[in-house]
Amino acid sequence: MAKLLYRLAHAARRRRGLVLGIWLLVLAVAGVGALGFAGQTTNQFSIPGVESQQALDHLKEKLPQAAGASGRIVFAAPQGRTLAQEQPVIDGVIAQIGKTEQVAGAFSPFVTQAISQDGRIGLAQVQFSVSPPEVKESTKDAIKNAVQAASNSGIEAAYSQEIAGEMVAIGVTEGIGVVIAAIVLILTFGSLVAAGLPMLTALIGVGIGIGGLYALTSVIDMSSTAPVLALMLGLAVGIDYALFIVHRHRKQVLGGMEVNESIARAIGTAGSAVFFAGLTVIIALVGLTVVGIPFLSVMGLAAAATVAIAVLVALTLVPAILGFVGEKIVSEKSRAKDMDPDKKEAFGYRWGRAVSKRPITALVLIVVSLGAIAIPAFSLEMGLPDDSTAPEGSPQQRANALVTEAFGPGFSGPLVVVADLPSGVNPQQALGALVGKLSTVKDVTRVVPAGVSPDGTTAVLQLIPNSGPSTEATKDLVAQLRAQTGEIRAQTGSTIGITGQTALNIDVSQKLSNALPTYLIVIVGLSLILLAIMFRSILVPIKATAGFLLTVAASIGAVVAIFQWGWLGDLLGVTHGSPIISFLPILMTGILFGLAMDYEVFLVSGMRESFVHGDTPKQAVVDGLGHSARVVTAAALIMTAVFMGFVFSHDTVIKSMGFALAFGVLIDAFVIRMTLVPALMTLFGKAAWWFPRFLDRITPNVDVEGETLARHIGQQERHEKVPEPV
User: Which of helix, strand or coil describes residue 392?
Assistant: First the structure.
């Protein structure tokens, strides 16, 4: 691998104009594709095969007009007035909405009879003729414009997410992380040229990745979170991978190596580590497909594609641009500083010696402290976004608050019951018996018939729980209704299925929760195999995986404490605690696995390189940490800064995702990799590099530390020095 990348770097440097031109052309094509072919993303999550989706599919077949998306509009009269006094305005708004494209019907509070006891708050219903992802933005805008007429008349009007239609957007605040990353690069290199190169190549890679993803939204159902996740990862790893290569190149040039040779060797050595580090991230993200959840698979593949582009950019575009930069990669100030005989020893060496002196103390402190942070993880509750989790003051949050105030929390997330009525019985009589039975179920507030199919065989009912859509009580109610299906059929003759957005969210959350252990087993197994191949060791992979599991446990614990319990909520702009987004634990596990292996590769490859070249095991730990600590610190701070930039997002999903990844990277880089790893490697001693002979014979040599490349170059140089025969 090292020799292949060495030759690739030489070729990219020699043909740097062509390489740069190709990448810029690809960027232009991706941009044109995004502008010309971008479709809609969605905030709706579903999984084929779960009970709620099966019931919804059955409803689409039998009663298609009731299976489309539906939204709510809440009207609240000013204090001292009632909705009846505002009826002309409200009827006018509803009539205008009813004429809107893709709207099958709009029903005012006076038709639905959903008016509070004091007559001040009412609930209107909008039924769309298409599924949620197919509702056009123009349709939503037309409805919002119509509702504005009520607001202009002094009536408070708010609407649900299906009408709000606010997709996750990338704003100015997310750029804060990029600014901080630029500052870290300048401080690391002390040169604008060297600092700007990783930023430039990362932005080109991200532009290609994000442009390509938006171009694909016209043919692939993609959640609005997927491009944001790809942007997060693409920026973070793109900057970091270029950083590792540029750092190695500068170090070699400062050591006296010729610039062109240094470029190739940097790609052959640091580039090998980048390749395998990127491969672990890609495998972890592609591995999300094994859980069988389509929207999560798309998110994983989208992010993996962006990371793959970042790796390709690092291995081809970076050497090309380094060829343009030439000697300017190292400033005169940096050369003078490097030659200073009185320069201070690098912090990494001092830290490595401190940890290796007291490895057991470091081990105990880390396990105890991270174990304490992980305790809230045992209280993890998962759910999907709904109006109750929307940002404070948004239309959907106000709609939820008004509905809860007027009718109770269950009206914010009604369940939809699809019933196959018994044959040979009057449909209305069968429907009445079913309503009577369902009304007796514990925690049911109301059951309202909503329609019967033309052939009289299928009915749809709206069931209002006592509790809100994200609560454990509603989850228990759905499970209870499904458990009583046989009893209900025996007493009423009707076979029921439970669906609706609330039931769909519950089923998706449960499926994700069940998939997490399987996914953990898959990626833990992959980490053991990959690291065993890379480092030809048994203990190194086990140690790396144990550290990764500590990182994940502590990260989930911190997320629960802040976003579910509300601790430090004011500091991070979390206005109220809510269940953790269902796909966050599994997504965070995959991403942190890949990033943890990044730092493991860069740190431990330095330790192995020192050991291979004759250091004692303990000295190899100190030297490996000393060589790598500065660049790993910079990389971790950059990645944390990029992720933290997303914590300022108004969207709770993106906010929690950004925090989870930023916290996880900080813990893994500084606590696990730079403290726990050297402590354990010191305790292991020479045993850390033990590898059974039979495995050594069958394991391919990937040469992450570049030992084979060094021998190859040495042989070439010796051959060149042999005088030709006269």
Answer: coil
